[in-house]
Amino acid sequence: MRRQNFSRRGLLRTGAIGGAGLALPTIFTSSASAFTNNPTGSSVTLGFNVPQTGAYADEGADELRAFELAVEHLNGGGDGGMLNTFSSKALDGTGILGKKVEFVTGDTQTKSDAARASAQSMIQKDGAIMISGGSSSGVAVAVQGLCQEAGVIFMSGLTHSNDTTGKDRKANGFRHFFNAYMSAAALAPVLQNLYGTDRKAYHLTADYTWGWTQEESIAAATEAMGWQTTEKVRTPLGAGDFSSYIAPVLNSGADVLVLNHYGGDMVNSLTQAVQFGLRERQANGQDFQIVVPLYSELMARGAGSAIAGIPGSQNWDWKLEDEGTKAFVKSFGEKYGFPPSQAAHTCYVQTLLYADAVTRAGDFNPCAVVEALEGFEFDGMGNGPTLYRADDHQCFKDVVVVKGAENPQDEFHLVEIVEVTPTEQVTYAPDHPMFAGGALGECNPGA
Amino acid sequence: MDAILIQILNGLDKGSAYALIALGLTLIFGTLGVVNFAHGALFMIGAFCAVTLQKILTLSVTTIDPERTDFLGNPMKVQTPYVENWFGPEMGATIIDWAVPLAILLAIPVMVLVGFVMERGLIKHFYKRPHADQILVTFGLAIVLQEVIKYFYGANPIPTPAPSAFKGSLDIGVWLGFDPYSIIYPYWRLVYFFFAGIIIAGVFAFLQFTTFGMVVRAGMADRETVGLLGIDIDKRFTLMFGLAAAVAGLAGVMYTPILSPNYHMGMDFLVLSFVVVVVGGMGSLPGAVLAGFLLGILQSFASMNEVKSLLPGIDQIIIYLVAIVILLTRPRGLMGRRGVMEE
Amino acid sequence: MLGLERKDTLLLIAVAFITLFAPIILNPFPAGSALAQFNAGYPDLMQRFVIFGIFAIGFNILFGLTGYLSFGHAAFLGIGSYSAVWMFKLLSMNVIPAIVLSIIMAGLFALVIGFVSLRRSGIYFSILTLAFAQMSYNLAYSVLTPITNGETGLQLTLSDPRILDGASTGGLPVTSLFGAEMRDTTTLFVGPWSWDFSVGYYFCAVLMLLAFYLSVRIFRSPFGMMLRAVKSNQQRMNYTGLNTRPYTLAAFVISGMYAGLAGGLLAAMDPLAGADRMQWTASGEVVLMTILGGAGTLIGPVLGAGFIKYFENIFSKINDGILHQWFAFMPDGLENAMVAVIHPFIGKGWHLTLGLLFMLVVIFLPGGLVEGAQRTGRLFRRRDKNADHVESDAARQRAAAE
């Protein structure tokens, strides 16, 4: 209270000194509105926080393209994209609740600290009411925690760790992207078809939380169908040269190498494994195989011909045949000249889902949005019928199993779809042990 | 036994890269007394010489193939590289296939030029400035260089495969009397190892057996006296900078099939190469080479499962641990001279 | 006043004035105007300004006075943050115990690392500190995940014990100083302007003023003189029979504790501690801040810290859309041309701009921003030797020492 009096006095003095043209100052406190950054003007601001520097900068750039496209469609521009195929018809191209959608961008640098600083500035300075984007699980979890505390909604971008909607789940955070458990559940049957049930797997795992959850998930799923796990080796993040980790694989008695790597690590470990001749080798009387559980078409481009025939999983692929995918690929391709990546897709869909939830709730209040998204079932967004589960704010939908093309016709056809694994097969209980230890808590409207 | 041998090979291979980068760094430091934080960026530019040549060779004419369609359903644009038009499809494909080794020819003049421009345009003005200023300005330059590369080539790694003649791997174990397939090693890594050996030998021979090298060595020991003798040492030092840049660049070119180049690979190597130089002893060329191979081999051993299960995480810190131990037992690194960089 | 000479007192008062009115000074443009993009007066960034100011002030006590260039100071920042978050998790959300623990822990680590590293000097010392810091970072990222929560960073959870506070209900608790919540912000709207006054900022600001005052005292004390003597000629000191190591070690530990305080404050403002804080790039950042501002000067490091943080947070957020708004008054062709020219330097190109500025500052202002300020000052003021700025003798000393 005293501080406010002081401010008022100081302020009056300032006003008096510089006063001629200034109207009498009015004083509000920020706690006047019901929730953080309540949009009172004619527009609403969304915050798109993507990696613009560092190893994932290209992925971030693709996410940003998708966000711009989504905003354009929400404001009634372009051909409307997935708005035409989305099962919910609440959005009509007049912004969100009649307010024009504007956005601010920031750089996560793929560091939790920098990402939080950037998100914090969007919330405090630019009045963003929703934060989205990102290309790593560490950043997603960190920013999700921040949004929970600040009282805004977080619609995560590309994050694959089980923890995002597992032990680090938050009421204000939502994930459309799939996770390591789903990758494993979708891949396992395909691997069984391809390579049989009598296999010995050797894991090379990026030594941080995402790598660990994926290793755990894949090992569990493959062991369930009869495979053995001979060794799990942790590799330092950004090791560059993986030769000293790959060389021992040759004589370990294993006949499958599972690379729990992403980004630059995946490109390097895969290329080098192929250089070491693993794929021409025989072990235990069978051809040696390599598996990369999480695929990304941008990274596939980096690995070049090394990916031919290597199986993996994706959240979505632009070559899917449904109407939603076609509409999205068309508007994205016509605007930018190349097909979108799965990172772009998930960011586009998340933006639309948020806008739709606000519209259906008729309110920007984060708690109303949470209520509208929880248990929401929709279709027409490229993944078939999808459920935003209320228990953990994870989307449940089909998973795409792909493998590297042997003779790609161009740089956009590096992977081909092997199978679309139906939702039922990748669904798990909310209290599954791999996701235990977290609680959503209550939604926080801030202020 | 075979597991240890193969890790020694891995270590020699890693060590070759470390040694080459550290060699250039030491040349610059030893001759010019400049701490060059942009040296990693020179390595990166070398790697991108290979990428650039690959891009040039695959410059293509675009023809429209009405039979096929692209992802939007429009008629497909087919790209045919010019070299395939000029030299015929087979010869053209071979040239493209050999882009990485050919890039050496491009990298040498480019790197020497980059070195000259850097030295004459920037470093020259920093000879008399404190090391802290040198670090800051070269660090700034490193950031600028890598951002420029990122602007043109993006942030993703770019595949630069070795020629298909070197794609397989060699069964070394059979030669040494082991079972077949117990020690196999990729051809290109062996090429890299021998390439590094040649470059290192070349640099040493150059400094040892040419008059130019002799003057430079004299200048490293006592710059002033050499200047008093009426020898234009500055000009020779400029050449040395070009040479150091070329060594770093060539290390980068040949490394591209092992590590797909991206714009920040220079920064990734920078800290490591400084550790190598310091462990070897500031200003000592044999020290830099020795430390490069030593740290490479130790790092490979630390990555073995047997070692990791005893000491979890040892592979993450081995380099730094070794650096600490060596610096505490040998105050100036393995072969450092007294009074260098100790003010 | 306060045991300071007159010019130091003036400097302290000036810094205090700027810090206390920062919310107004840093928001010179009306909210909603095109230039509001350049406003930096929002709580999170202002907090970062003063926290990294503390970090750089502490680093300067070591580097500016003794000339020992540590490349591993970020480790102490990280240790401070981890200690603070653990305190929030185990004991209480009150910031006092957290900050006390982070200073103590950072001090202990600095004692051990300093004791070992200070056995060497010059670049050998730099590499030793770098090696310790990189080891801490690599281990914190991977093997030590049970303590540090690895990549994600250590966070508060609902299930933390928090012995003094009791079980939390509903949402996550927030950090506070005896009930005053750190995130509490009062916003003033004056005409078109809006200014944020946040509890957290003023808490940090007061600590920074204390830290700054302490550093002035150290600079002017016999201890500070001793450290400068180490910088100018350590050998001579040793020949006179004086053991310099206790002095340098004391300086190292003090600057480590400053870093711990900064780390603790970062966690107190935003209870998350990430391993990235300990990476060598973070150590390099504080070196850059100090040199950029003016090593060995009192105010330089604070200026450098503000400069770099401003770029990181403001320039990275300018995107093409904003550029088009700025140049909307121009004809279309010219507008697009202007956007195309500026595009590589903003948004995702902010690193490029920063790199160029480093180079320009080092090339043309060897004494850092402080020297720049002096030069501009001299332009406007008749040259008067006696009334020379307080910083100039520090800058001169630096030049002489090197």
Q: How would you summarize what this structure contains?
A:
By secondary structure, chain A is of the alpha/beta class. Chain A has 13 helices and 17 strands.
Would you give an account of this structure?
The complex is a heterotrimer of chains A (447), B (343) and C (402). Chain A has 447 residues and is an alpha/beta fold. Chain A has helices at 2-18, 57-74, 112-124, 137-150, 180-195, 209-224, 243-246, 264-275, 297-303, 323-336, 342-361, 366-373, 423-426; strands at 43-50, 100-107, 130-133, 153-156, 173-175, 200-206, 228-235, 256-260, 282-283, 286-287, 289-291, 311-314, 377-378, 386-388, 395-396, 399-404, 415-421. Chain A folds into two domains: 45-178 and 318-392, 3-Layer(aba) Sandwich (Rossmann fold), CATH 3.40.50.2300; 181-314, Response regulator (Rossmann fold, 3-Layer(aba) Sandwich). Chain A is 36% helix and 17% strand. Chain A has a five-stranded parallel sheet, sandwiched between helices. Chain B has one domain (2-329). Chain B has 343 residues and is mainly alpha-helical. Chain C has helices at residues 6-20, 22-25, 43-66, 74-90, 95-117, 122-141, 145-148, 199-220, 222-232, 234-239, 245-269, 280-293, 300-314, 320-326, 332-342, 350-364, 369-380, 390-401, and strands spanning 154-155, 176-177, 180-181, 185-190, 193-198, 272-273. In chain C, strands 1-6 form a two-stranded antiparallel sheet. A two-stranded antiparallel sheet of chain C has the order 2-3. A two-stranded antiparallel sheet of chain C has the order 4-5. Chains in contact: A-B, A-C, B-C. Chains A and C meet through α1, α2, β2, α3 and α4 of A and α3 and β4 of C. Chain A: This is Substrate-binding protein. Chain A: Belongs to the leucine-binding protein family. Chain A: Residues 1-34 form the signal peptide. Chain A: Residues 44-403 form the Leucine-binding protein domain.
Write down how many β-strands of chain C occur, each being a DSSP E stretch of 2 or more residues: 6
What Rg of chain C do the Cα atoms give? Answer: 22 Å
Question: Which regions of chain C have little confidence, pLDDT < 50, spanning 5+ residues?
Answer: none
Oligomeric composition of the shown chains: heterotrimer
Radius of gyration of chain B: 22 Å
Q: Please give the count of helices of chain C.
A: 18
Structural class of chain C: mainly alpha
Describe the biggest sheet of chain C? Answer: 2 strands, antiparallel
Helical/strand content category of chain B = mainly alpha
